[in-house]
Amino acid sequence: DVKVTQSSRYLVKRTGEKVFLECVQDMDHENMFWYRQDPGLGLRLIYFSYDVKMKEKGDIPEGYSVSREKKERFSLILESASTNQTSMYLCASSPWTSGGISYEQYFGPGTRLTVT
Amino acid sequence: GQNIDQPTEMTATEGAIVQINCTYQTSGFNGLFWYQQHAGEAPTFLSYNVLDGLEEKGRFSSFLSRSKGYSYLLLKELQMKDSASYLCAVTDSNYQLIWGAGTKLIIKP
Description:
The complex is a heterodimer. Chain A is mainly beta.
């Protein structure tokens, strides 16, 4: 059974703290993604990775960094958390896409982060 | 720019049929996805269309017209558990997934 797991369901951090969100997938997928989801705005892509040690900026990378040292693990780092980073964070993975065919993304359960 | 439009909210009655529309303008097209997301949960895959026409999967069907930049998700025999948000997403020429803001569907008894 396909599985994407995230390290925490709920997290509360203080402004200025460094925050690590971990994501692990067991499907041997090449692509991994980090999104944030806010009411009325839909899913916004922060960063994605298509291979180990590779990363690409998404639509809203400012204030975030990522790390992919192993194929199955993709970490999102908030270098200095701010209140405007309070959000739902979703990790997803998918197989490599090419040749005019796309594949679905499989999502983890999400981490609801509150920065106070 | 790239854009996906879908209604913010819809209401329907249990047992009825509802159609959720999605229009898109993207740089290229490599397929359109529909996802379901219950409140507080992650999105789950419903359907994928890459060619024009209707794809049927049980109570759910999805239609695509590439020339019109248009898709719809049709839900039949609505059940209370179908209350959720429905997300439309399009893969562009770079295989990037562009997401709509989602349609919140409220089912009333």
